Amino acid sequence: MYRLEIERLLAESPIVRSTDLRIEDEDDTIKIFGRLLFIDGSLLYFFEYHVLGELRKYRFHWQTREGNMIARWDNAPHFTNITTFPDHKHIPVGVVPSKQRRLRDVIEEIEQEML
């Protein structure tokens, strides 16, 4: 079950200091909202929306403790020129292609930068 996978991921990650997680698991949908505090003081705000097991919408916003954006991953369909459309990543200097679509992918990328 995806819910257990998320909970295990957060419990086992070496960079996650604390979590604030809310999961709404209804008939055919699951919504996962949360905020993670990392060991360096940065924060990740996230949302995933699944219908019948398929990821439909997501957003992950990683910021410094002061509130400055480090990166933001989402699939809002507004950057049609990106090769991974609609998936993309906002960075301080613009928008780039991204294949990170799930919380696990994003945490793995952040771990690579921190460790």
Tell me the layout of helices and strands.
Blueprint: H1 2-12, E1 16-25, E2 29-38, E3 43-51, E4 54-63, E5 69-74, E6 88-91, E7 94-97, H2 103-114
Antiparallel strand pairs: 1-2, 2-3, 3-4, 4-5, 5-6, 6-7
Task: State the gist of this model.
It contains 2 helices and 7 strands; from the N terminus they run αβββββββα. It is an alpha+beta fold and 115 residues long.
Structural overview:
With 115 residues, the chain is of the alpha+beta class. The chain has one domain (2-114). The chain is 20% helix and 46% strand. Strands 1-2-3-4-5-6-7 form a 7-stranded antiparallel β-sheet. β4 and β5 (69-74) form a beta hairpin. The protein is globular, with a radius of gyration of 14 Å. The N and C termini lie far apart (29 Å).
